[in-house]
């Protein structure tokens, strides 16, 4: 009987050893896998951070740039997910800043801004949120500011009706290219051209 017990204990000890070895091998394999994954994503993360340091980008825009650099899809997905979780990529915040800067610096209309954001992969909901701050009155004021900037390029009062309407068409076309509504663009173009002609005529009278 004791001999049988020793045999059972020996079998259990062998099984325990095998189990511990399997666990150790599994831990080594897991560590190796984690290290390999980190090595794979490190250059992707480095490139992504350099791109974000240059300027803010939407999630889709950054993903496209990384894939264009021929990084593996899986590594790109991992890095993008990490950046979203950390808040370094935030499409809603990106859309808000894009609208603010493009209206201030480029005089872009709501329609054009929406098109630009959609091309960058920003969702309709995030576009709506960013553009909700732009009222109809804001849009009219911006249209007029852009038109006035164009009208200041008129240096002399038009010699005739044909020249006057040539100025009007050029300003209206510039507004249309920025995406402002045609009817509003025509009205504002007409107003600023008339105001500019009056200003130039007054200068001549003063001389």
From TrEMBL:
It is found in: Cytoplasm. It comes from the Bacteria. This is Regulatory protein RecX. Its main location: cytoplasm. It comes from Corynebacterium kroppenstedtii. GO terms for biological process: regulation of DNA repair. One of its GO terms (cellular component) is cytoplasm. Belongs to the RecX family. Residues 90-131 form the RecX second three-helical domain. The keyword 4Fe-4S does not apply. Coiled coil: none annotated. Keywords: Cytoplasm. Residues 45-83 form the RecX first three-helical domain.
């Amino acid at each position: 009987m004791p001999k049988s017990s020793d045999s059972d204990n020996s079998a259990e000890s062998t099984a325990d050893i095998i189990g511990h070895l399997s666990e150790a091998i599994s831990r080594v394999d897991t560590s190796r896998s984690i290290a390999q994954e980190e090595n794979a994503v490190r250059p992707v993360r480095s490139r992504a951070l350099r791109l974000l340091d240059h300027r803010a980008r939407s999630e889709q825009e950054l993903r496209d740039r990384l894939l264009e650099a021929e990084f593996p899809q899986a590594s790109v997905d991992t890095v993008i997910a990490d950046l979203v979780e950390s808040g370094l990529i935030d499409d809603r915040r990106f859309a808000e800043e894009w609208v603010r800067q493009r209206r201030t610096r480029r005089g872009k209309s709501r329609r054009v801004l929406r098109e630009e954001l959609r091309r960058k992969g920003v969702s309709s909901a995030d576009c709506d949120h960013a553009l909700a701050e732009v009222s109809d009155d804001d849009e009219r004021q911006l249209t007029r500011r852009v038109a006035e900037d164009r009208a200041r390029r008129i240096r002399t009062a038009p010699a005739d009706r044909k020249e006057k309407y040539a100025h009007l068409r050029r300003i209206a076309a510039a507004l249309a290219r920025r995406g402002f509504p045609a009817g509003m663009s025509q009205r504002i173009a007409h107003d600023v051209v008339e105001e500019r002609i009056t200003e130039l005529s007054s200068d001549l009278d003063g001389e």
